[in-house]
Structures are given as structure tokens and as C-alpha cells.
Amino acid sequence: MHRRRRRTALLLSAAIVAAAPLLTACGNDAHPGAAAVVGGHRITVAQLESRVNEVRAAQRAATPDQAQYAQTVARTASLTRDTLHTMVLDRVLNRAAKNAGVTVTRKDVQTLRASLEQQAGSGKALADTWLQQYGVAPARLDDSLRTEIVAQKLAAALGADMNSPDGQATFWKAMSKASKTLDVDLNPRYGDWDVQKSTRVDAKTPWVREVTAPQQAQGPA
Known about the structure:
CATH architecture: Orthogonal Bundle
Number of strands: 7
CATH class: Mainly Alpha
Order of helices and strands: HEEEHHHHHHHEEEE
CATH topology: Triger factor/SurA peptide-binding fold
Helix content: 55-70%
Strand order of the largest sheet: 3-2-4
Number of helices: 8
Strand content: 5-15%
Shape: globular
Structural class: mainly alpha
Radius of gyration: 17 Å
């Protein structure tokens, strides 16, 4: 059960965490104040920055040594883009789950958390693992666990075996359908949204310039 859950997490993280150059905008902004628009609802730049700051603060607290913290920041240099991808993908996943009649209760989350805490040895150990491997701040742990459960239940509702290519194709077809319905629109400074793959990709635009080299992607163990 635990291994199956980790495979699901790995699949989702592979879509969320990608090695990509950091870009900076230096021209007109077609999405003033918005990092993305999903289903007509804005994810503001302020909301995105707040989420990123939560992770950075947690990383700083977990690595009091300045040199180690600098290495952590360098290793997760694409955090802003990865975080936006996660925020968008969560909304797409929730729409796909709604389409399939999938629901998740608070008890579902509590049960999963208790199980994982027991396996990790403590609540702190679990939170530290999720921070290091998934870039999830401790305060967002329950949200992340809920996402894992939604993905598992959606796969089950679709009859999709996530360990097989056909099952994965079925799962991502449902995600693609949800992406189309929500009409995901990213601010060009953060890239573009690939509807077919339900993933963020870098967009080359005349007013965007590359400022750093691609970083190594980080995924769960």
C-alpha cells in the first residue's frame, strides 16, 4: 500500500517538478497581478510569492547553517515555477475528480497522515521529508496529502492502474479534459500550460530573457 502510494506521488511529482531556466520579464505584462487564471479564477502573484516564502522559511528553519541553506536554495532554484505548477495542477486535479464524482473527507487525510507519521517515526520526520522531497511547507502538509488521496481515488474511479502505461494514459486523459474545461492561462513570465499533458512548459516570448542556467530537477525518492 505504501509503495503504491509512493508511486502515485512520484508520477504526480514528475509532472510538477521540472528542470527549467529561471526567466524574468522586462516588458509589458499581459496578466497584471495574476500568475495564472484557472477556470476564470486568478492565482495572484502575491499568493504565489506567499506560498514560495512559506517553503523558503521552512527550509531556512530546517537548515540553520548558511552554507547548507544556500545549497538548498540553489538546488530548488525553480521553486517559484514548481509552486505555481502545483497550485494550477491541484485545481485541474480537483476538477477531474469532480467530473469523476470523487470526494475526499477530512478523515481520509487524517488517516493517511497518521499512517505516514507512524512509518516516518514522528510528525516532524514526516514534515521534514515532505519539505525536502516535495518542497511542501509543514503548514501545507495536509493539503499535499489530500492531493495524493484525490489522485489515488481518481485513478481508482477511472479504473486506471498507475503502474501501467495504459493506466497512466487514462489518468492524464482525464486531467487533460479538466485542463481544457478550466482554460488554464499562465502569465508568460512563468511559461505556458500544455493542455494535453497538464503540465507547465517554458514559453519563449520576445520580452522574456533567460537569466540562469537550468537547475537539476528534484523528485521524491
